[in-house]
Amino acid sequence: PNPNRPTQSLSSATPCLRANPHQKYIYPDPIPEFAEAETRKFKFELKKTLKKDMDTFGDELDEVVNVCAKVLHEFLSKEYGGPGTLLVEPFTYMLVALKDNNLPGAALAARASLLWAQNHIDHDWQVWNSHPS
């Protein structure tokens, strides 16, 4: 030991570290009005995107869009609580619902829906919630 250095006990030299339980972030509840508005926007945009592939969808384009919109609306109404809560499952459900209804282009429509959601929903939620009511 260095004779010029005062001695300290280890417990007084180190700060007391306590384990704090992590606080769990609670996401906001879904907003029905947001779900309605976002579903309308989604239907318009998805139809515009899928129209580019009319050879695949033909006369069933509207039905494909409606099935996708129904699944998205259900998710937005019951589960989506803002950024960090966008899940992949609804888009898997879309794919299954489209196939179960023997609709064309199931994979293409589900993928287009997922890409649209990833590019728009979280941003739209933030814009929706940034304006005072």
From TrEMBL:
One of its GO terms (cellular component) is DNA-directed RNA polymerase complex. Keywords: DNA-directed RNA polymerase, Nucleotidyltransferase, Transcription, Transferase. The keyword Transcription applies. GO terms for molecular function: DNA-directed RNA polymerase activity. The keyword Acyltransferase does not apply. One of its GO terms (biological process) is regulation of gene expression. It is an enzyme of class 2 (transferase). Its EC number is 2.7.7.6. Coiled coil: none annotated. This is DNA-directed RNA polymerase.
